[in-house]
Amino acid sequence: MNIYDFLQSTDIAAHCEKIGHVFSPLDMAVIIALSEKLMKEKHAAWREVISSYPDVPIHKSLHWSARDSLRDYLRELIAFEERCMKEFYEVDDNIVYRPDVIIKDNGYSGDVGCFPTAEKAWNAIREEWDWEEDGVSYAIIYKQTIGEISRGKEAHFNSNGEMTYIEGYDKSLAPLDLIFIHIPVPFEKGDIVTMYGRDNEPHVLADFPHLWQKNANQYGREYEDYVAGKKGDGSDCLATTYSIPEYGRLLRDWYPHSLPTLKYFRGELKGQERFLRYLSQYIKENDGDVAWLIDVYDRFKKEAEFDDINRMFGGWWLPLSEEEFTG
Fold first, then answer.
1. Mapping DSSP to helix (H, G, I), strand (E, B) and coil, where does residue 85 land?
2. Element of type H or E holding 153
3. How far is CA 185 from CA 19, 98, 305, in A?
4. Cα Rg of the chain, angstroms
5. Are 239 and 255 in contact (CB under 8 A)?
6. 3-state secondary structure of 179
7. How far is CA 79 from CA 55, 73, 171, 175, 303, in A?
8. CA-wise closest residue to 95 among 146, 133, 130
9. What would the pLDDT profile of 58-98 be if each residue is shown by its tens digit?
10. What pTM does this model have?
11. Which residues of 133-149 are buried (b: 16+ CB within 10 A; e: fewer)?
């Protein structure tokens, strides 16, 4: 099996393949679960893990009770998900299906009504949205019982209407994405990256709390504790980054589960985003004066404010030139 093909980030996949990194059977099972592959492709891959790789235990962790056999778990998971897939399409007079889509860099689009079958809900998606033109990332169809407030069960679909995810719950089957796994990355501090669902949003990479702090960090955790499941869970596969959202503030934030989805930002930095290039340089070199860095950021921020005012009022009322306004 080419497990690299299941990694969400093509940059991480290329790096892992280049260095010849070998994932454990448990790592492979988690990577398959996190992938955007079709459900049938995930199940085929898990069956190959069962038949072609050594059986391993699943360690006890925050959300998991220890299990003696990964193979037994995967067999149970496949059977459960296949049952959920079948039940998703079963209808009666009390069931409705609500279609929705996720737009890249923009979140939910808003649903377009209720339908008696999943097939009719999918047809509504095809009629309402153009996958490429509207920037659709994936489609969601919710199966809901009439009169219930909850959103109901959900399934995700690609542009061909093929299922990539099915929601289900069985207390004996904790989700694989709650397991921390080791994934080597090609990135360095200061690299400008983006992540799944945010392809047009640049972020300056500040830290991998679990990866670049090999000794005990501020939380008293050591890297080996993550891998062994003694501390944390899959959400600790995260990145800490700087970005500049639309409202113009420099934001430092962390994104759980983001590490497997990171890739280099290859777009153009525009407006205030140009500051991120200087921030990237500063983090990489770790020299220069902080006041200078803030001065650069402040200039770009004032320039953006000037452009907003100029667009709003046409520039006719401003007593200052752009140079005088921004200093």
1. helix
2. strand 153-157
3. 10, 38, 37
4. 23
5. yes
6. coil
7. 18, 10, 15, 14, 58
8. 146
9. 888 777 888 899 999 999 999 999 999 999 999 999 999 99
10. 0.81
11. eebbbbbbbbbbeeeee
